[in-house]
Amino acid sequence: MSQAARSRAPAEAGAPALRMKGITKTFGDFVALDEVDFDLRNGEIHALLGENGAGKSTLMNVVAGLYAPDHGDIEVQGTPVRISGPQDARLLGIGMVHQHYKLVGGFTALENIMLFNPRGSFRQSRTAVRTAAADAADKLGFRVDLDARMDRLSVPEQQRVEIMKILIAGASIIILDEPTAVLTDAEAQKFFAAMRGLAEIGNSVVLVTHRLSEALSYADRITVMRGGRRIRTAHPEEVDADTLTELIVGTRIVEKPAPSEHVGAPVLTVSGLELTDAGGVVRLRGVTLDLHAGEIYCLAGIGGNGQTELVEALTGLVPPDAGRIDLAGHGKVTGLPPDRLRRLGLACIPSDRQGQALAGDLTVAENFAIGGVLAGRFGGALAVRRKPMAEAAAAAVRDFEVMGVRSARQKAGLLSGGNAQKLVIAREFSGAPSVIVAHSPSRGLDVRAAAAVHGHLRAARDRKAAVLLISEDLDEVLLLADRIGVMRSGRIVAEFPGGTDRRTIGRAMVGHD
Amino acid sequence: MDFLFNWLANIPPFAVPYALAALGLMICEKSGVLNLGAEGFLLVGALAGVGAILSAGASPAAALGIAMLATAALSLLFAVMVIALRVNQVISGLAIVFLAQGLTSLLGRTQGWTSRSFSGMPRIEIPWLSDLPWVGRILFSQDPVFYLTLVLIVFAAWALRNTHVGMRLRSVGENPEAADAAGIPVALYRFGAVVLGAALMGLAGGYLTVVISNIWVDNITGGRGWIVIALVIFARWQPLAALAGAVLFGGIEAVIPRLAATGFWVPQHFLLMLPYLLTLGVMVWSSLARRGRGGGPAALGDPFLREERR
Fold this sequence. Notes:
Chain A is of the alpha/beta class.
């Protein structure tokens, strides 16, 4: 424990650890938090639920000292406080694990923890932090190589370093922003067991999430936010998933599986695809699969098992070392560049929408029309006709319900995650493609936006497109799949019909068949 | 044999400005501030040293100190632009170069400092060691700045890895958001790095006039600032590697007058082109050798602002 933590009065179980009253925060004209009240008790895990943009992360960033509220009062362990920076938050025993980890990639795990926890001279610090980290790892049941470079560690390992970092700094109020977005089911279970352990020794945990099942199974209390306001705080036994959904989105959205009514002939045939990356790591070891018209084929699996490379090979970004890809009616298309494949009717929704799918500094219209410009639909090589381009974009924005577009001249980088994704889908679907490769299209999206994305994928399938959906989210796989493949270590290790139970699929993902 | 020996003994004074300037630039860039103004800082240091001697009668050591102060003062302007106002770092760096070129040539002329020679800094013969055969003359019979440079480089290499300040400086350049979350004052560290880095570049510039040429002419730095930018990339932002690079470039520069003196006929302008040719070669080699991975600070060139909503 740090000095700051030691000097505080011992926390009383059940007493409020943190109390926020009337917190308001605006960004320009946008009201991100509107008179929000929130309280957290010692020894509890408190889930904070809401859509993207509901204000969950903003509220917690206020607690962590990253945002200064316009007004409102904060009490920590019964004492009114002013948190004017991350330093203040730390001295008050508040630690936050952000959605995007605040870790220095080129540093080792130890250096990252030291950076956050200076203890006397550099050498003393190095020894003290090493001991403290070993203790913390023991307590949490973690195993982490402290001398490994951060950017060589897996995402769950990085998360463990983040948690150790704030615990060593003496945090007793622990804020976790979407901690399981990057974890598999099994990893998430272990993670929550560790968090429960922390709560049992008197710490309090805020779990910011948009996964209902998590809040219901692991939290002691649940607070729902919507549109910058607190809607309700309840115990999990008082609510169920449907009620929570309604509280979160304001209306009922319940997605039900809707299997394909007519599966046609194979459209895309992949056989024996092999790929070794620039670093010499073998990524694909003979991937073979058939994709039929009118089906959604879901490729489940833990991230990093070759999914990204498969998408790159299928879309022509990286030619495979061996194997072939056939497109019905066009024969062998292996190694064709992306623009040729696009013209043959292949569309792609990449996993990194702001990085790969959109050019953030260009306008919505330009982002939408880029495919059409290449095809010569908006003028020739010398001049681009802006007007039809803007009209087509405006129509797509309407049809695909892309919100937050004030004008087609607005920069695409300003769209929220869900709306950016809808824009990508609008563009990719505009040529009525026969094959759609979608890589984690709903990652990081809230319930409503995810449902819209799913709806568009189903609609594409129903007009006889073949859809390959690569997802790490088993709920999504079960909801959409007509057929399920499991990818592990660069191979498709198992295939199941739609509707297979999740434990069977989960076992194939981790390799305990 | 004589040729080789003379050449080696003459490398240190040619290598020192490269080493010092590379160290300064590296410290600045370790904090995440891209500094293309190196040529400008060298020029200001070079002229300030000359001015201090010719107009104030300063000793060579004091003149070098004044060169550092003058450059540090100019760097405040650069720091305010790129850190506080978040002006594009590439543009700001280039602006500094053009400002310094105009300013130094104007001042040199109006103050009457141009083309006036003066006496420079004497060498230090380290007792006993300088009597050693070969190494004595190469390593232990140089000017004081040479020894200072070696100490600074070794100290910087150690301090970047083994002190809180060094680790924080690197974190600010690698991931300012993470550094900020760890309670490190990002802007302050960047300010400090820019000013300290500029002071070292000023020392390098001052060295060129006060110790080596003993005279000021317009653009006396001759593009060394640009070579240093390449040198830092080549050295992958590691001080000891920068020292090796400085010796390489210093070696090329030192060979030019020696080759000419032997009567071995090579076109004069080809020889003068060698350092720049080497710069190109080194860049091509180093980018091939590491297959696209730069090894530079990850946030190099990115301005930092905490309350940014994306």
